[in-house]
Amino acid sequence: MQTVTYRWPTAVTTDTPELLRWTGFGGALLLTAGAWAVSARVGGAVALGVAIAGAGLVVLTWALLGRTRPDPGWLRRTLAWWCAPLLVAPPLFSADVFSYLAQGEVAANGLDPNAVSPAVGASAEAVARVGVYWRETPSPYGPLFTTVERAITEVTGGDPVLGIGLYRLVAALGLLLVVWAVPRLAAMTGVQERTALWLGVMNPLVLWHLIGGVHNDALMLGLMLSGTVVALDALPELKWWQYTAGVVLIGLGAQVKLPALVALAVVGTALARRLGGGWIRFVTAGFAMVAAAGVVSAATSLAGGSGFGWVRALGTPSKVNSWMAPTNWPGYLAGAVFGPESGQAMISSARIAGFVLILCGVAVVLGRQLRGRISEVTSLGMMMSLIVVLGPVIQPWYLLWAVLPLAACLPVGTWRTRVAVLAGVFALLVPPLAGNFAGRVPELIGAYVVGIALVGGAYLVLRRARVSVAQA
């Protein structure tokens, strides 16, 4: 082991990892404190600037941490420290958790949240907290999450504070599954555990949206990734009971959000390849995965009492035109030139084209996996990337569908750097406000000025501290 000392930003003192750990923890504290002040309407642009500065500090220290060589255990402990303040923060970056609370009320009232919107089936207090876009729309989530929503409402009696706390507990449990699964997926592809944990699990998008934003994607990803690990681990010796357990876990993830089904295509193709390959085995395994998904779906829908209304509500998120989705950009351009009707027609056409491209891309990826040209984990990361980029809706937390498997398969190099940069940019793209921030542009401009100034000052302090990098 040789220690080489450089000047910042290539280098720091021998205590660099510890310095970065506590700087990131301080950023998480600032983000939480600023968010509470904003939610209490105290401090205005300054409070929001403090929250933005905290987010910027975490992103900065995460990026610098990627240059160091801490062991995986150290990274897990650092993740726990960075998550701790966010566990008691108000909902960050999104108001979706308030939709969960309202949908839980609908279910607890004996109605189907996949068919009845919060505006119809929930109390006025619950509806007032829901984002304006989702008050009149039914839940798009699967029966497993509907059961969770109803159970949380029944346990808390509709108390929003307790409800948010329990949803955060569910998100934390999902994150624990992710922390367990990502290093094991990395081991399958030969990627170092510490690099997979850094890019995948310690990613600021994980902190912001799985813990801070309380998104149910944490549960979906935890079930999907852990199920993938269990199923793939069973294949070398063909442990059918273990493989079945993995398939069931993936199926349960899809009963939170449907994109988790992509992992069934991966493990099904892996099974076909293990049995000798060829298109006949591939098609047979595909039918088996479809049947397994149907059984898990039926069992979850009937056991939870939520029924099958969720199938009709799968298109709910696409009712809002996402400005981040590339498939919507031609429509925005056409709308600006020819008017809103032409723009919406172009958006609809582009979404169909995106769906066709997704199907074609998935077919190509699975074909390469079947022939052994790419690994199962790479296949999962590539297909999830297609769904995110070409889908009708993109939210910052959707990137995690692709980033987590990619973190477990991309070697150190250009593509890993690009994914890290993309994650860092998206981590700062949306201000830490729960809900719509339209009409607050002057406040946001002032807040970003404050935030950038604070992060710039922190950067200069860290630069004066100097850095060291240990090279094996």
From TrEMBL:
InterPro entries per UniProt: MptA/B-like
Topology of this chain in the membrane: Multi-pass membrane protein
Pfam family, one: MptA_B_family
Localization per Swiss-Prot or TrEMBL: Membrane
GO MF entries: glycosyltransferase activity
Keyword terms: Glycosyltransferase, Membrane, Transferase, Transmembrane, Transmembrane helix
Lineage top rank: taxon: Bacteria
A GO CC term attached to the entry: membrane
Transmembrane segments: 20-38, 45-65, 164-183, 195-212, 247-272, 278-303, 352-370, 382-407, 419-438, 444-462
Family, similarity comment: Belongs to the MptA/B family.
UniProt cross-references to NCBIfam families, sorted A to Z: MptB
Record-given protein name: Alpha-1,6-mannosyltransferase
Organism the protein comes from: Lentzea albidocapillata
